[in-house]
Every structure is written in C-alpha cells, then in structure tokens.
Fold this protein.
Amino acid sequence: MITPIIMESDLEIVKTKITQLKSSGEKRVHVDIGDGLFSDLISISPADLQELDLSNLSMDIHLLVDDPTEYIEECVALNPARLISQIERMGSQVRYLESVRGYDAGTLGGLALKIETPIEAIEPEALELASAIILLEIPPGTSGSPFDMHVLPKIRELRKIYTGKIIVDGGINPETYKLAMVAGADEAGANSSYWKGDFNHG
C-alpha cells in the first residue's frame, strides 16, 4: 500500500494537493508536521489543517517535532486515523501512546524511528500499544534522497517482534517499494516519487 505524503510549508500547495488526491480517487494521505527543531522541516501546523476539506480521506499525521506530546490534543481534534511521532523526542513511548488513546477519539497512536535509531530503542510495552511503526530511511524532514538499504534488515528485525503495521518512509519508488514489502513492511509513504507520477496515479 502506497500512501502519498504531503510535506509543505505553504497551505495553498497543500490545498491543491488535497484536491488532486480526491480527484484521482485516493483514499489516504500522510501529512508531515515539522517545527524546525527536530529537523529542518518547517511545515504547515495542525491548526492549518482545520481549514482543509479532508472528507473521504483517511489521514495519518507524522510529527517531526521537538516535543510531540505538546501536539497531541491539537492533532487528535482533526480526527486522523493515526498520529505517529518520533521516539527520539519522547520521554516515554508508552505514555505518549496512552495519551493518544486517552482522548477516545478513534485516533490510533504510532511510533517512528530515524534510520540510525535501533529497533532496541522501542520500549517493549510500546510494541503492544503502537498501531504502526514508521521506519525512516532518509533524514527526517527531507525528500528525494536515495533509498538506504540498511532499512531492509531493520524491517526484518522489527517484523520478528511486532505484529502491527510497519511503514517505510523515504526513498520510495516502484523498485524500492517492492524491496520493502518483501522484507516485511505493510505500507510505504511516497512524497517526491508520488507527486512526479512514478506510481501512475490518476
């Protein structure tokens, strides 16, 4: 499953992309939110998303921010399907996931790891609570970088201990997508390759 990624600082561009997704029949979208502190990405804010018509789109929000817990309430108000955040900025992964669940809004919590962050950094109890885990294989908040093959053994390692959804993010094109799926991933997010038309969307 390929999910198109939106990673933009200009709300008008986001609106255009959402319109394009709907017209092409897409059902899912992955929105990256960055504050310029965790990575260089400074994106639109969760509040900006309130201005968009996201009906008929299942949305994942990926927080690339310095303190994801500060964003939970604002993001859950948007009713995303999943709210996924980087573990490198969490005091407690379990507390983060329980906080997302505590709003009882139907939003599922997930975790994300940078390419250099080992699988062992995931708290064992968090493996039971996380609905999805994103494995980045390019630097956070970037796009168009080459696929890092080191993510493939990482997918296989995670698959041995985790039954939830494994998502690969970054460097995805039709060829690397196949490699990730064979390694055990369930989904992949594509930004530049998707918008260039590499996946032949309508």
